[in-house]
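Morning F.,

Quick status update on the modeling queue. The single chain you submitted on Monday has been processed. Sequence for confirmation:
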Amino acid sequence: MATDVNGSPNLSDKYGPMFRDPVYRKLRDILDLPAGERSLEAIIGGIKMTIAIMKTRNEYLDTHCSPDSATLEEIRLFTEASDWSTAKARHHLEKQKGIGMLTGKSEGEFLKFLVSMQQAKRVLDIGMFTGYSALAMAEAVPPDGVVITCDIEQYLEKINRKKFDESPHGNKIEIKIGNANDTMLSMAEEGQTFDFIFVDADKENYVTYYNTIMNHGLLTDNGTIAFDNALLNGGAYLDTDNPADALNRRVEKDTRVRRVLLPVRDGVLLVRRVKDVIGPRYGHVSTD
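Structure tokens below.
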């Protein structure tokens, strides 16, 4: 058996291709307990340890991301403290909201990195909620840049505009209220284009949003699209009828683009045109 530098058996030999995941390793250890050690106490103890590993990993990720700006932290704390279970009735919302809709700290920083690496000046944010993603990306665009954030809820415009205006980057954010696809089609008719587009809205319309972006010229040359919840709580690969899987399969069949699906939080699907990933210098001939 192969050994690592410390003389111990390689984890890959014992656990296979999933060896880097400590959650998988712990579950395998529970499953592989010798018959004489498979007590209920041992199994429950192993499951509790597995849950603790997952919590520790999430805490570690947040700890080792740069801290939020003051306004971003206030948005996150407000979202976490709000009673979203009754918000729909209290504020006459179109759809039920929940804390799970908040872009987390690590993903918010990830978006900021993507926007800054893209050197994006014009960003489109589909699905505003309490404005965390919009402000995170606005912090990354230059002073003359803009983030247009879209939502259907009038109530969210009121509370978010006030909070955006407390940030030195809030003047870069424009809020559009209404049906997101109608808003995109209207902007396309006006000739508006975007360097970076983040979609985190109603999942059942993800394919529609993708088609609108790609077929109506909203994405600039060298632009990037990011779809949040591309794994949708595991449903993308566990369910037979899932909107995230429908999006992933639609993009898979689109010969105009290349894509990468990353396990950031609930999955982030990044999409770019082929010619912007594999350029002429590598011998690629565009079929656009």
